Amino acid sequence: MGCCTGRCSLICLCALQLLSALERQIFDFLGFQWAPILGNFLHIIVVILGLFGTIQYRPRYIVVYTVWTALWVIWNVFIICFYLEVGGLSKDTDLMTFNISVHRSWWREHGPGCVRRVLPPSAHGMMDEYTYVSVTGCMVDFQYLEVIHSAVQILLSLVGFVYACYVISIFMEEEDTFDFIGGLDTHSYYQDHIELKPVKPVEISNDIDSEMRLLNLS
């Protein structure tokens, strides 16, 4: 297949997914969001596997990529529901950090236009070891930035799912055609290369002598 096909499009799409996943992984690391970090890590591995399968004509690898894209869509839908607080979920919980830290999304304090100020505990009249952070002037709330990231992932995954199914069908058709043509070629090759064992003149004379002796004896 040439480059102007679904295979080439899927290769470009996998490369785009890798870039977007790496970008998201960086900011999730900065925010210590362990659940998304684990999901991004698995996503990167499977996308690389799908990219390898597309380049090397391995439909089984693309099948794994296709199944993962469906799961990835479900995961990102859950993240959208989490940050929009749909279905009883709350963005203020520690679910994304596996309840092992109180960190929130990196975009909460570093979003576009955000002004971050660290307030000492004494400013609140409380004597503890926690540091209070005041964030003002954000152009876009952090939850909407997370929703945008997840929406982009969903869009790329849906397009990748469609292209992956198309490429798998093309690969399977090519394999069936190859097997059919290969079978015919093998059969014709076998028919064309059957060699008849030649009968040597010596063997013919020996057979005639044997028959003459039998006639003389009779």
Description:
- This protein is mostly helical and 218 residues long.
- The protein has a domain at 2-87 and 144-193.
- Helix content is 66%, strand content 5%.
- It is built from six helices and two strands; from the N terminus they run ααααββαα.
- It has helices at residues 6-30, 34-55, 59-83, 107-110, 142-192, 201-217; strands spanning 115-119, 132-136.
- Strands 1-2 form a two-stranded antiparallel ribbon.
- α1 runs antiparallel to α5 (142-192) and α3 (59-83) packs antiparallel against α5 (142-192).
- The longest helix has 51 residues, at 142-192.
- The radius of gyration is 34 Å and the shape is rod-shaped.
- The termini are far apart.
- The model is unreliable at 186-191 (pLDDT under 50).
- Residues 1-21 form the signal peptide.
- One of its GO terms (cellular component) is plasma membrane.
- Keywords: Cell membrane, Membrane, Signal, Transmembrane, Transmembrane helix.
